[in-house]
Amino acid sequence: MFLKHTPIAPSVAATLLQSAEAAARAIPPAFPLDATVAVNPFLGQTHEDLAQASARLARVAGVALTQPRADLAARVAAEEVTDDDLAAALIASPSPVKPRDLAWLKTRMATPALQPQALPTLADLVAKATGTDWPAVIDRSFGLWAAGYFDRGQALWTPRPGHSAYAAWREWATHDLTPEIAGLTGFCAHVATAPDSAERAILRAADRLGLTAHAAETAFHRLLIDLGGWPMHARWLLWQVELTGETDATLTDLLAIRLVWEEALLAHAPQVAADWQATVTAHAAPLLPTPDQALDAVLQDAAERAHQRRLAALLTGPAARSGRPALQAAFCIDVRSEVLRRALEAQGQGIETLGFAGFFGLPVAHRPAGTDQAQAHLPALLNPALTSTSHGDAATEAATRIKARAKRAWGRFRQAAVSSFAFVEAAGPAYGGKLVRDALGLGAGGMTPGPLPQIEGGLTAEAKAQTAAAVLRAMSLTTGHARLVLLIGHGAQVTNNPHESAYHCGACSGQTGEVSSRLLAALLNDPETRAGLPALGLTLPPDTLFVAGLHDTVTDHVTLYRDTPAPDHSADLVQAEVWLTAAAALSRAERALRLPGATGDSLARRATDWAEVRPEWGLAGCAAFIAAPRGVTAGRDLQGRAFLHSYDWRQDQDFATLELILTAPVVVASWISLQYYGSSVAPQVFGGGNKLIHNVVGGIGVVEGNGGRLRPGLPVQTLHDGQAPAHDPLRLSVLVEAPAEAMTAILRKHDGVRQLFDNGWLHLLALENGQIAARYRPGLAWDSTDRSAPLAA
Asked: What is the dihedral of CA 490, 496, 502, 505, to 10 degrees?
């Protein structure tokens, strides 16, 4: 050790533990594979602007948070980004170290950007001094323990279930000889004598490592980043319990574990003490953006303004509509719906589509047939208020459970370390046939409908009407109803894909939208609901039928669920299916142009091909969120890059729906957008790695190869076609047709949402009569926009 150890003063101890908590809060959550939800990887940095967050992540992770400067400069050279875009971004930048003027900006833009380097950990320093790759040893040893400890049913055995992470790891590590074999003599004894609580371990390590109060926060953040996706999973555990008002200490336990390693490595190689002291001094230095980081933030903003300029050219005013629609179809706001909505509307003048978050306003936790486990079918920001189930009668449910248990037992027999050999002996030839069929894409196709879901316990007649009225108002679907209204959720048919739930509905917590759409259709068709609506100021035409559906975003096939008998609507349903079939063919032809090696006819086969790494592009390309009447965007080719939320502020007297949109769907869309952004600009930290070498671990996530760091975020094949990027990393532009004053009042009430706009993680633009009329700027202010000129800062 290189410092004399003295008792830590209580005030210093409190500051160090606060720094540990701050470092934990700087880590984003990573949801498990069975319910993958896109997460803003910069969730812990939204109180900072892009340049400041770039300085932080450069120090702790060695990554840049903007597109490569050369790529942005190439856009300027190609005149995709104009001098007006650059000038507006430069004026808007709050950085004191930004380029002094446009000429200087363009001069500096031509110089190569320096690659950021993270401050080293002790493992890095000792590896350099001794020649042993200690970061790799830690990854292997810690990853093996974490895979078992956090397991969600994949492993046959887990270490010390029911114990805290720190306690379970100490018991494991006192018997793990991997570090000692690698040369870290005495590591087991070192762990055995470590403090018995994570907090005391953090304080002892801070003392032994000489971490000052000023250095601790980014030093702790650096160590958590060094553990890859495991701390992100721990942050998810904290996220989950905080929704119910509780807390969880797993994340600080992981920090304590990593600090115990650092202590041991410093004792093993005291010759790095001087280099470590210099690192601590660097951690204690003020965290300020460099001129390069300020420059790159300006260029990133300019690229986003260029995209907004192109949107402004498309949005030239609302299209007129008259008469009763022949068909209305409400889709999820997901960007993949935009292509199919446009294709469906092209089938006839009387077809109208709407956009609404795919959980359709029902905050449901659902218990599928065969299990008592409830799945959240609502945005991750919300708590369920209702419970639904697909359980049948007692005999059917018992049979379903027996079948499910047999399937699980067979799977364990097939995968277990010993019985897997017997499986090959007994079932090898028959299973080989299945592998051949799957390899040729001949497996079973289609998404099988589940049993009819129902609200558990039912709802009173009054509650039915109140729930329906709230949903209809939120959808701006209060008047002008067609005879047939489709409520179309979405899901994705994929095969052999660990990230399957990531292709499903983000507003349904990684489940498909089937349950939500069928529940809402049943509710809106219920006679008790219809009878109670007039007292709440709403009336549904007696001949309006609501029918649920599911859009398979891989094949564009739409399944309609005829749960409510309606013989009078048979012709309407037949015609709707004709239109949907024709629209699907158009949509597939358009989407196939972007998928490597795809044709419109081959998308269904790709869905059943277990070797297909790109069944579809997911939400790649997402760049805008538009909340406005459909007339504003109808007929405009938005290229599957815009979230489209139907909203008519004239029907929203108290702006409650506007508040809901800005605080829920916009935030969910920002998480999606920023996950794609973070996985693109900083893939080594926030990306999911290479699908071709993924292995599922613990039912939680994936690792590359046979162990090590958990990989969060999006795989490279989701973002790149092998030749060029498939996603353009731009922060989301939010366009809302509503009075600026109403949006200002809502942002004043919601500091977390306001931070996203004030610090540039999202852009906010006000629409008026379907055209961009004003731009929000930090401090609850707006700048009017000259519609004949490029957008001003």
From this structure: 10
